[in-house]
Amino acid sequence: MEKKRNAIKETITQFILIVFSVVLGLYLSERIEDGKKRQESDELLATIKSEVKDNLTLLEDWLPYHQEINKNLDSLSKDAGFIEEFIENKYALLDKLLTRGSFMKRSPASDAWDIAKSHPRIVNIEYKKLLVLSKIYNQQAATFEPATEMFEIFNTKDVNKEKDARSNLFLMSNHWRELVAREEQLMYYYKAANETFDLKDDQNLDN
After folding, report:
1. I need a labelling partner for 99 at 20 to 30 A (CA). Which of 21, 23, 69, 140 fits?
2. CA angle, 134 as apex, 130 and 139 as ends, to 5°?
3. Distance between CA 121 and CA 47 in Å, rounded?
């Protein structure tokens, strides 16, 4: 009987050890998988943060220039002498406005965000951060629409015809004013990102 009891104890002990080993293995495997998921989410977020900071640097550089264009365009649209010059040659407007030679070297990028939206690990990013990012990139998508509308007007055949020149200049001025307002709103969202992602450790977004 003693041998039988010992055999039963040994069998139970072995069974417990086997179960424990399986459970421990599953637990460790799950922890390792969770670690990989967190790492992928962190890398995903780091790429987006880098893109946001790069976009901010771009906007900080070009927004003052666009504000200057806004003031100049508003002034030119009320200048009778310039309107006559515009009627003679519509490109006189670009000569007056584009002191840097172009409107903007490039638009803010959204590649990292576009990739992240379809990535399965985006669900591991905090909701508050996703909300801020969504606002930023939605604003980016809409920000430069007024510039497109302005240049569409500029490129029309009769933009500088005598009877329409003044009204078209006012219309282009309004579009540009809207562009600057949207860029300023975008800058506000970048500052929200500063608070949410603590980007100020790498770059002061409040300037």
Report:
1. 140
2. 155
3. 13
Listing DSSP states for 147-190 in one string gives HHHHHHHHTSTTTT-TTTHHHHHHHHHHHHHHHHHHHHHHHHHH
How would DSSP label each residue in 65-104? HHHHHHHHHHHHTT-HHHHHHHHH-TTHHHHHH-TTSSS-
Give the pLDDT band (50/70/90) at residue 191: confident
Angle 9-10-14 (CA atoms, 0-180°, nearest 5)? 120
Q: What is the DSSP string of 7-36?
A: HHHHHHHHHHHHHHHHHHHHHHHHHHHHHH
190 close to 52: Cβ distance less than 8 angstroms:
yes
Q: What does DSSP assign to residue 157?
A: T
| CB within 8 Å of 35: residues ≥ 6 apart | none
Q: What is the DSSP letter of 109?
A: P
Distances in Å between the Cα of 6 and the Cα atoms of 12, 45, 116 are: 10, 57, 59
> In whole angstroms, what is the distance from residue 145 CA to residue 149 CA?
6
pLDDT digits (tens, 9 = 90+) for 160-172: 999 999 999 999 9
Give the burial class of 55: count Cβ atoms within 10 A of its Cβ; 0-12 exposed, 13-18 middle, 19 or more buried.
buried
**What confidence tier does 34 reach under pLDDT thresholds 50, 70, 90?**
low
What is the DSSP track for 114-129?
Answer: HHHHT-GGGGGS-HHH
